[in-house]
Amino acid sequence: MSSPALTIRGLQYSYGTHRVVDGIDLTAETGSVLGVLGPNGAGKSTTISLAVGTRSPDAGTVEIFGHDPVTDHATTSQLAGVMLQDGGLPMSSKPLQVLRHLSSLYENPLPVDELAEPLGLHDFAGRTMRRLSGGQKQRVALAAALIGRPRLVFLDEPCAGLDPQAREVVHSFIRELADRGVAVVLTTHDLAEAEELSDEVVVIDRGRIIAQGAPEDLRSASAGSRSLTIRLDSPVPADL
Q1: Is residue 233 domain-resident?
Q2: What's the pLDDT band for 29 if we cut at 50, 70, 90?
Q3: Is residue 111 part of a domain?
Q4: Which DSSP state fits 122?
């Protein structure tokens, strides 16, 4: 059996005295979609930041195909693509300029048009990133995450701000990625989206995993004698 694409064990992280990731264990396999479900502020985005090495954990380990994303970032950045909620893309550049620059950083990138055409990027290619709508920025960020042909891709709320047609395009991309053997880690607060796309769903609340399993199993559990409730009783920092 091949090694998992992503292995996270005992992950912890705090902002000051506030523990936002509290003992997370995750495994993502190649050719599958792992849905990470939870309300805004549950710790999903922080977990992704730790997984890709943009933050160092207080405790626990992360491995991407056996490599530590903090100490061996040069390797893991070639293996994994990431789409974060804030995008992190240069606002003064135009979408295709961004993608062409990013493609130069990879050994075997996808042709820019293979992403620009189906995502409709040519429709607003003449505008700078700062002039794009939220949904348009999301589409550019998705293309940026995929340009390097990653074997593992992290998609943090990829459909936020998208209209139904663009949402279906993104869903098709996600299904195609998994069919090609890519491991996909999808964070979302949308239960229907998690059920539709995921092979396995992990539910996070207040930095902890409170439920995990195949979508149909979680649905059966919530419909039976047990209930699955996601609730936040106290405010959390806005950047989680």
Answers
A1: no
A2: very high
A3: yes
A4: G
> Does 154 map to a domain?
yes
- Between the alpha carbon of residue 106 and those of residues 5, 63, 68, 96, 175, the distances in Å are 19, 21, 19, 16, 23
Domain limits at 129? 31-42+74-223
Q: What is the mean pLDDT of the chain?
A: 90
Instruction: Order across the sheet with 6-15: list the strands.
Output: 18-28, 6-15, 59-64
- CATH code, domain with 158: 3.40.50.300
Q: Which residues contact 208 (CB under 8 A, 6 or more apart)?
A: 22, 23, 24
Task: Give the count of domains, the chain.
Answer: 1
Burial class (CB in 10 A: 0-12, 13-18, 19+), 125: middle
**Which residue, 137, 138, 135, 142, is CA-closest to 184?**
142
Q: How far apart are CA 34 and CA 153, in angstroms?
A: 10
pLDDT in tens, 93-145: 999 999 999 999 999 999 999 999 989 999 999 999 999 988 899 999 999 99
pLDDT tens by residue, 52-65:
999 999 999 999 99
Strands 18-28 and 6-15: antiparallel
Residue 127 and residue 158 in contact, taking contact as beta carbons nearer than 8 Å: no
Residue 125 belongs to a domain: yes
- Asked if 143 contacts 96 with a C-beta cutoff of 8 angstroms, the reply is no
